[in-house]
């Protein structure tokens, strides 16, 4: 049987009090709609259909052609939203799963179990369901509708919270709104949903329609954290905390040591090799990749970077940079966009590198800045060295050859080239190229002036 999913994501999200559409608020590195789309894709044989409305172009730009789109031009309720997907799925999907874009914690395992329940019952002629749905039991209703059952325990319907009597509000079994529908039955009966007092069409009324027709409605309890919806920033923070713990556990079970999970933040898009240790206060974000046996932290922030095996980062910030195996930085270092430390590079405290390559074995002392530079291997960068790469209008390149020795407090006024094995004296201001093996010092830097003395031979001796 062909299975497809419909993800409802057209709402305004006014309670978020944000210019950003609710579905685009991030949870551990991914907008919540992306989490929902990933879950839908995992159980769907057809591309999921995302129902969009408010600021639809932003969701479409984010998800691209991973999904198909149906447009809900007016916010007339969940039933009306699903109606918009009919032209895409009618006569195509035998089973239709309906989920929500603001439930990032819903796991594909949970959705798969619901689907399995539906398919198992569908195989039995006596119990062929029109609907299988998730329910949950808890004291905090979070605005969910109440499940109404008869004395035999059979579900009779769902009452939205706004329409509940005081007695119904006391019911603890709730409807999070996750359904698995018989596709043919869904499209045949969707138009039968009555309009509510608010002028909306509630998808929950499909349960009552099924019961009235004598069709089976199956239920399954969901894990409580899976179906937490997000309506406010408080809900967003709660969901983020749950997702953060899930991600940390995933890495620890895969062989990563996280010393203090309570102070460690790792986004879902990050990959980490086995036997790497993450120390307290560390933030790993974006498309960061870290190899094996690395040591990260304490108190490091790494964003969109690639780090090789056995790298070491202490009290430092890295952004869109690369560190090859056995390189190290910190404490209090900063790699900016385009920085690349080759194998075995050491970068000391309070150093900064931007759009520059440091070759294998190079040592960069503390309080130094290299921008727009290409440094060959085994170079010594003395403390306080600065590449003066910007002339007020344009950036210029500095090149330093193999095995050069750059003395402390050297200013390299780009464009300039330091030859292999060359040396600059402490405090030198280098404005011209330095040949290989040469020594320069001073302001401006120049080679030492050599005076050849001639001994006078006494006469008559």
Give a short overview:
By secondary structure, this protein is α/β, with parallel strands linked by helices. The chain has 9 helices and 42 strands. The N and C termini lie far apart (118 Å).
Description:
The protein is of the alpha/beta class and 461 residues long. The strands form 6 sheets. The chain has an 11-stranded parallel beta sheet, covered by helices on one side. Strands 1, 4, 5, 6, 7, 8, 9, 10, 11 and 12 form a 10-stranded mixed beta sheet that branches. Helix 1 (32-43) runs parallel beside helix 5 (108-122). Residues 451-455 have low confidence and may be disordered. Helix content is 18%, strand content 28%. It folds into 2 domains: 3-227, Spore Coat Polysaccharide Biosynthesis Protein SpsA, Chain A, CATH 3.90.550; 316-440, UDP N-Acetylglucosamine Acyltransferase, domain 1 (3 Solenoid).
Topology:
Elements: E1 3-9, E2 26-27, E3 30-31, H1 32-43, E4 49-52, H2 56-63, E5 68-71, H3 78-83, H4 86-89, E6 95-100, H5 108-122, E7 129-137, E8 145-149, E9 155-159, H6 166-169, E10 173-175, E11 179-182, H7 183-189, H8 205-212, E12 216-221, H9 233-253, E13 257-258, E14 265-266, E15 271-272, E16 277-278, E17 283-285, E18 289-290, E19 295-296, E20 301-303, E21 306-307, E22 312-313, E23 317-319, E24 322-323, E25 328-329, E26 334-335, E27 340-341, E28 346-347, E29 352-354, E30 357-358, E31 363-364, E32 369-371, E33 373-375, E34 380-381, E35 386-388, E36 398-400, E37 405-406, E38 411-413, E39 416-418, E40 423-424, E41 429-430, E42 439-440
Parallel strand pairs: 1-4, 1-6, 4-5, 7-12, 13-16, 14-17, 15-18, 16-19, 17-20, 18-21, 19-22, 20-23, 21-24, 22-25, 23-26, 24-27, 25-28, 26-29, 27-30, 28-31, 29-32, 30-33, 31-34, 33-36, 34-37, 35-38, 36-39, 37-40, 38-41, 40-42
Antiparallel strand pairs: 2-3, 6-11, 7-10, 7-11, 8-9, 8-10
């Amino acid at each position: 049987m062909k299975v497809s999913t419909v993800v409802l994501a057209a709402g305004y999200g006014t309670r978020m009090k944000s210019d950003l559409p609710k579905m685009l608020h991030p949870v551990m590195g991914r907008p919540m709609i992306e989490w929902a789309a990933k879950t839908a894709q995992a159980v769907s044989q057809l591309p999921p259909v995302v129902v969009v409305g408010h600021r639809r172009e932003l969701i479409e730009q984010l998800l691209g052609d991973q999904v198909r789109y149906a447009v809900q031009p007016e916010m007339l309720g969940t039933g009306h939203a699903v109606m918009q997907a009919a032209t895409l799925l009618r006569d195509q999907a035998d089973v239709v799963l309906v989920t929500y874009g603001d439930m990032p914690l819903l796991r594909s395992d949970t959705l798969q179990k619901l689907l399995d329940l539906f398919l198992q019952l569908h195989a039995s002629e006596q119990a062929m369901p029109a609907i299988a749905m998730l329910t949950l039991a808890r004291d905090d209703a979070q605005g969910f509708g109440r499940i109404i059952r008869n004395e035999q325990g059979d579900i009779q319907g769902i009452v939205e919270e706004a329409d509940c009597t005081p007695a119904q509000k006391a019911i603890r079994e709730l409807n999070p709104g996750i359904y698995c529908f018989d596709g043919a039955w869904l499209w045949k009966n969707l138009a039968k949903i009555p309009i509510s007092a608010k002028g909306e069409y509630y998808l929950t009324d499909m349960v009552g329609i099924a019961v009235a027709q004598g069709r089976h409605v199956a239920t399954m309890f969901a894990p409580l954290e899976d179906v937490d919806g997000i309506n406010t920033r408080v809900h967003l923070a709660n969901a983020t905390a749950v997702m953060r713990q899930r991600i940390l556990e995933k890495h620890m079970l895969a062989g990563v040591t996280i010393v203090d999970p309570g102070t460690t933040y790792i986004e879902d898009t990050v990959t980490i090799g086995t036997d790497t240790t993450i120390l307290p206060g560390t933030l790993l974000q974006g498309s960061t990749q870290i190899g094996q046996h690395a040591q990260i932290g304490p108190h490091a922030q790494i964003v969109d970077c690639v780090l090789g095996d056995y790298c070491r980062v202490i009290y430092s910030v890295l952004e869109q940079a690369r560190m090859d195996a056995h390189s190290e930085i910190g404490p209090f270092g900063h790699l900016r966009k385009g920085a690349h430390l080759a194998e075995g590079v050491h970068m000391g405290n309070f150093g900064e590198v931007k759009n520059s390559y440091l070759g294998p074995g190079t040592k960069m002392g503390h309080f130094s800045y290299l921008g727009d530079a290409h440094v060959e291997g085994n170079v010594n960068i003395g403390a306080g060295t600065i590449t003066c790469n910007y002339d007020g209008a344009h950036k210029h390149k500095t090149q330093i050859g193999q095995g050069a020795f750059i003395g402390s407090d050297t200013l390299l006024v780009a464009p300039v080239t330091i030859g292999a094995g060359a040396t600059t004296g402490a405090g030198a201001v280098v404005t011209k190229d330095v040949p290989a093996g040469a020594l320069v010092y001073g302001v401006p830097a120049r080679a030492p002036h050599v005076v050849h003395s001639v001994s006078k031979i006494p006469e008559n001796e």
